[in-house]
Amino acid sequence: MKQIVLGIFIILTFVISPIQINATTMPCSMVLEPIDKKLTNSKGTALVYKVQLRPPSFARTNVSILGVHLPEPSSYGNYDSYEGFAFIPEEISWRFRLYPTAEKDSPTWAGRFDEITANMENVEVQVRLSNSNTEKLGPSILSSNIKNCR
Fold first, then answer.
1. What is the largest CA-CA distance in the chain?
2. Of 19, 55, 81, 139, which shows the fewest CB atoms inside 10 Å?
3. Domain ranges of the chain
4. Is the pLDDT of residue 13 over 80?
5. How does 108-117 read in b/e, with b if 16+ C-beta sit within 10 Å?
């Protein structure tokens, strides 16, 4: 009997452990690092968690982003703002505007998106340049993968 229990325990360890390792527990947060390593002061964070919206419906996932010490968007060309961008490669993406604070020299950019219903595996979260008039999305400035979410 002891051998059967031990055998079941060993099998469950190998079957359940990989699932738990790959799963992202929420809430969690991750540091968004600059793509260009010359932007030593530029950093960001993303908070990922479940929200219950009104009217009562099923829970959805929220991604909130904060970026600090970002370069002036126009220094990269025809851009005037930043957007949060989260995506599952070759499946789906979400983009949302980041709004600057009133700080003069280097505003903090922040925003959120509450409507995600997809499973949050292999999600890349970025802060990207944007042109608010043309809605053109530019290159990524900060980035991280949900695997880094703690």
1. 72
2. 55
3. 25-148
4. no
5. bbbbbbeebe
pLDDT over 60 at 86, yes or no:
yes
Token match 């499946």: residue?
A: 91
Q: What is the mean pLDDT of residues 90-113?
A: 93
* Whether the Cβ atoms of residue 35 and residue 140 lie closer than 8 Å to each other: yes
What does the alpha-carbon distance between residue 107 and residue 101 come to, in Å, rounded to a whole number?
5
Q: Which CATH architecture has domain 25-148?
A: Sandwich (2.60)
Task: State both tokens at 29.
Answer: 């947060």
Tracing tokens 């957007």 back to the chain, one arrives at 83
Give ∠ CA 25-26-28 in degrees, rounded to 5: 100
Given a contact cutoff of 8 angstroms between Cβ atoms, the answer to whether 35 and 141 are in contact is yes
Question: Of 40, 132, 6, 43, nearest to 81 (Cα)?
Answer: 132
Q: Which of 57, 51, 69 is nearest to 112 (CA)?
A: 51
